[in-house]
Specification:
This protein has about 100 residues and is an alpha+beta fold. The protein has a domain of about 60 residues. About 30% of the residues lie in helices and about 35% in strands. It contains 1 helix and 5 strands, in the order H-E-E-E-E-E. A 5-stranded mixed sheet has the order 3-2-1-5-4, with no helix packed on it. Strand 4 and strand 5 form a beta hairpin. Bound molecules: zinc ion. Zinc ion binds next to loops. This is Zinc-ribbon domain-containing protein. It comes from Actinomadura fibrosa.
């Protein structure tokens, strides 16, 4: 009689593992959906209140510029000047003041 309960648990453990793997793949896929563009960030200086960024476009190979409201918005998916979507990866940040 007790052996019946042990057998019933086995399929439940198997399905639990499968759910975790499927969830991980979905997240990873959405992140790698866009090509990444390595960006140089320029901090607000003088009359500029926006952050500027310059990227080397992974689609057309040309350079594109864009503006951001703040530093936090840099690590997001942006539309480039040639109309494609890329995910920005900040490589360098140019601050208005020299940091020693
Ligand atoms: Zn482009």
């Amino acid at each position: 009689m007790t052996s019946d309960k042990t057998e019933a648990r086995t399929p439940g453990q198997g399905s639990g593992l499968t759910d975790e793997q499927a969830g991980g793949r979905v997240v990873e896929h959405s992140v790698t959906r866009y090509l990444t563009a390595h960006a140089s960030l320029y901090a607000p200086a003088g009359r500029r209140t926006m952050w500027w960024y310059a990227i080397r476009c992974p689609h057309c190979g040309a350079g594109h510029f864009g503006r951001l409201r703040d530093r936090e918005a840099a690590e997001t998916v942006r539309r480039t000047g040639c109309g494609r979507l890329v995910r920005l990866v900040v490589m360098r940040t140019y601050a208005p003041k020299v940091i020693r």
